[in-house]
């Protein structure tokens, strides 16, 4: 043990007092504050005028105040004891009280009782008895039992004597201990601690009913208190003036936080520890700036890291370990989550998580692989597909003529395949044909240039898909992302779709753009969670957006939209696919005219025994709107559907958008079903996992049901995430109005 700061070299302690001297655990990291205080006390210990005996540690919960007080007990080699103050504390709690006298049959019982007074649980009592009397656990229980019997017998006697028992404060000052007084600012009666003023003097005195107690020369008092917390009051000025040294306790630096977390939890991944420490500091600063009363401190950090060590997802465990300790108020949580999103720390944490998963990987047993007829790993298969992209596209084109007739298709009766499902002669035309400028829909690219650009982009998108789906139930089944290959026929079909929805789109977009222009030009924008003035007209909405705030010149309502279209075989019925195409074109035109970031995916499970999921990327957030209607025209009913894959992919990319509102729209006509076993409870659990993962991050899911499985989808997605569109002929108009509500 380091004896650099010991001030009691010549002093003898009892067995109990020796046990009261704190022993630093291996996880303890000496702070600069500890070194500074211990040095000050040691250097001035023998100076009667400048002796430092009263310390004030003021700071947030979890900043290490109590840990520092205990560490000083070890450094100075003084027995440690503490008193935790409470609101109704009075002078009897400071000085002591008259209590019944318990006579003992053995002289050692008094020493045993003193030891018991210092513990706070039965297990601690038994442990202390074992150590104090050098006996085993059974003997300790027997000794305690006999003592209780004697006390009971004495209480039953008619003669009861009373004795003044001093408080822990008096005992510590009389015997020369290091005394921690916790949270004195919560005491309602400000005069209570003023009673200690005389005792805090270097040669202080305490006047108690049994006489005058002089403060022991070795007694060190450490006052620990929080700053500006609910129920706290300012520390009495006269008491504060008697403090010889004060420290402002804040969260330590990032590096110190990391070192303490490693020592405390034995978790060594510094990339995780660094970003988690940054998140803790950001939440702490945001909470203070917005008068949020909770605390994000070292305790939250340690337990959050420990949950990660035990295998929990840090993005999920952040809520119970950190955020909900700060607040459970929805408005305040929104403020904290917005700060996290704007900082980019959540994306960094997700990237660290993805890197760890990439290094660790996941394997299934050979028996399971044989049962599911898996002969190669999904990643190898996908890489192979990338290297043989042209062959894969030819194979897909060949199988598309029979996709919709699959006997496996959602346990429904066989369907007749119309000419839309077959490869027509016009679709086989050269994609390099010359196009009129109006046919290019504003694009200066040829179809060949578009195809070449998509070929390069597809590789990067497939790599991103594999990263997102690693460690999910879809990893082994394999997922391939395609970019639509359009022809002149698709351009013609796209123009037809556009003409059908354009009047409705132009009418609604004019209204929305007018509203946005007015919103930007106003001095105040309304409908905010917090702001400069109260707007009573919004109270009836119940959405807590009851304030107006100053509107900067570049501040306007912000929305990002991701759309998923189910391309399963059942979409062939009742012109569902045609209606879905019209809705997709309407949404894309509306998004372009109102400058809403848009992402559009279609999906289907391939017609094969493995049933790899195919994702059709019609538009990424960073894509232009060139040839948009023509791309959508390539949509068609294909095979089964594995909903969890497109929902997770879209939600992950949507989560990276910087927008006030993030909406994921799923247009589907049936329940998820794909080989080998993606259906029922397994599919439901997977979809609800995606919803839970991303709803907490601010994404709003809306399932638009257009088939006979509406009630099943309502149960699957939840009442709050479900819209019943019974009349599919009005699907485009209904979706446009639905999205307009979020702007």
Helix/strand-derived category reads alpha/beta
**Percent range for β-strand residues:** 5-15%
Major sheet characteristics? 7 strands, mixed
Mean of residue pLDDT values:
79
Number of strands: 19
What spatial order of strands do you see in the largest sheet?
10-16-15-14-17-18-19
Protein name: AAA family ATPase
InterPro entries: ATPase_dyneun-rel_AAA, NorD/CobT, P-loop_NTPase, VWF_A, vWFA_dom_sf
GO molecular function: ATP binding; ATP hydrolysis activity
Organism: Enterococcus dongliensis
Descriptors:
single chain; 743 residues; alpha/beta; seven-stranded mixed sheet; five-stranded parallel sheet; 27 helices; 19 strands; 14% strand
Offer a concise description of the structure.
Helices cover 46% and strands 14% of the residues.
Please provide a written account of the structure:
The structure is a single chain. This protein is an alpha/beta fold. The chain contains 27 helices and 19 strands. The strands form 5 sheets. A 7-stranded mixed sheet has the order 10-16-15-14-17-18-19, with helices on both faces. The chain has a 5-stranded parallel sheet with strand order 2-5-8-1-9, with helices on both faces. A hairpin with a 2-residue loop joins strand 6 (205-208) and strand 7 (211-214). Helix 2 packs across helix 3. It is elongated. The two termini are 65 Å apart.
